Amino acid sequence: MPDKKITINSAKLGKIEYSEDDTITLASPLLGFAELNDYLIISNTEYFPFLWFQSVEDPSVCFILIEPQPFFPEYMPAVNKRDLKVLGAKELPDLKIFCIVVIPDEPKLSTANLRAPLLVNFDRKIAKQVVLEDDSLSIRASLFKPAE
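Structure (tokenized):
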């Protein structure tokens, strides 16, 4: 039997139709959003390489994500075994890594939070934002190099 379609009206993206199978559940809520646990990861070629992390419980809550590798090729977060276990993964390559992005009025000043990546196990439909212990990682890493 096909999955029943659910519709939400996202403040950022408009009408979104999805099925229960599309939902990613957070193992623990994002800081400041304790009551929100279920999200959709939405890609759109028009906004590539940016993705949307849309709450299905509050249509006004939507974050912008990137996969860090194209912007930060050396980025390889050290994730502890407890977080891997919570996500049902044996090692980091079993998960997809995303970083939350802030895009200000001046888009070339956009930053990514490398210190607290969002790790997603798509097989289990579970995610967790982990706060890394590495002090060298910035919560506001510039996505674009300034013009020389």
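The chain has one domain: 5-142. The helical segments are 81-86.
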